[in-house]
Fold:
Amino acid sequence: MVDEGYVVRERDEKDSRAYQITITDKTRKIMNEVFDVESEFESTVFKDLTEEEKEDFMVLLSKMSNTTEEMIKEYQIDMEFPAHPMRSKKN
Structure:
């Protein structure tokens, strides 16, 4: 991302072991374009819904998201995954 000009990487003045990563104007421009597209999409998708319906939808979506996150956490904890063939074994 540094080489492509999306971020600038500079040594931290207080801690020479650390770096400060800052987005560039190039990244800000892309972010603004994404936000514009997102806003247009949202306006189009929700255009026929009342404010109450939009709020209800967001509540339901949030509940579904929370349930999905819980399922993912449970799956990761309870399941044993086979070793990935590209990872080296530590022994």
About this structure: Strands lie at 7-11, 19-23. The chain is about 55% helix and 10% strand. The first strand starts at residue 7 and ends at 11.
